[in-house]
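Archive maintenance. Older records in this collection stored only the sequence; we are now back-filling the structure field for every entry so that each record is complete. The fields below show one back-filled record exactly as it appears after the update. Entries are processed alphabetically, and Phage virion morphogenesis protein is next in the queue.

ARCHIVE ENTRY
Title: Phage virion morphogenesis protein
Organism field: Glaciimonas immobilis
Length field: 190
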Amino acid sequence: MAGSTFEFTFDSQRATASLGKAYRALTNPAELQRDIGEYLLRSTRNRFNEQAAPDGTAWEALSSRYKNRKRKNKDKILTLDGYLRGAGLRYQLDGADVLMGSNRPYAAIHQFGGDISIPARSQYAFFRQAPDGSVGNLFVKKKKSNFAQRVTIGAHVIHMPARPFLGLSVADEEELVQLGLDHIGNAVAG
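Back-filled structure field:
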């Protein structure tokens, strides 16, 4: 009977060292958490470019009334000055968790939608009066006004549709798993 043999040597010290590195990477996840937080910032900011929720559904369009009076970024939803999509987005490491959110007080109404109740109020409206005494029907800033009139504005409700920008898409979930695998692989290869 013909046969062959071979000798196999197992280096247990190297395997133990690799397992130790993997264990340390898993028990001290701060580096992985920071990578996850940075990824979530990029992913969430991309949603403002796409103007879509994490599940891919488009955000509800701006009302024509608001769009007409919006002074800049008229074609962008949830962007006037860019505070919500920029420095307003934050992540925080909290034990084993990575928390993602915004420090802007208006972020929740945009994320979840809802109604804003505006109470009745009385205020001055400012106009330009022509030399012939006629008053225009357009409001102007106080410093450009030469005629003011006290007006009462009744109570009303503004409905804000939900435009979710926080959350995970399927692609995000896959990328986070890959980040974890890469983190462990890099620790073992270390």
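Update note: The helical segments are 12-27, 30-50, 64-69, 107-112, 170-189. The mean pLDDT is 89.
Entry marked complete.
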